[in-house]
Amino acid sequence: xxxxxxxxxxxxxxxxxxxxxxxxxxxxxxxxxxxxxxxxxxxxxxxxxxxxxxxxxxxxxxxxxxxxxxxxxxxxxxxxxxxxxxxxxxxxxxxxxxxxxxxxxxxxxxxxxxxxxxxxxxxxxxxxxxxx
Length: 132
Hints:
This protein is α/β, with parallel strands linked by helices. The chain has a domain at 59-127. The chain is built from five helices and five strands; from the N terminus they run βαβαβαβαβα.
């Protein structure tokens, strides 16, 4: 985990989707959610059919966006339809991403792991107290 975070969330048992184009960042995020007790699911490692089924099986999602993010719009729509708490991460222009995806949580890259931990603690369905 590249960042340290105080007050780590306990995501015991939840599956977190990681849709990140950079393999090193994806690995770092995966290691982080494992350290927090969740199971990472790397979107780019899934078949097209598995990708279609993802929104109904995850408790949260971390989705990378760039200026060429059109291929992620369908994923974001599906996550919204299933009410999956989602963080969009980007190194691109935050104002443009914010206008294109109003109401979504957006973190600028590099992701601040304390902010991510706080987001999970405040809003994630992955927390044991929110799981059925």
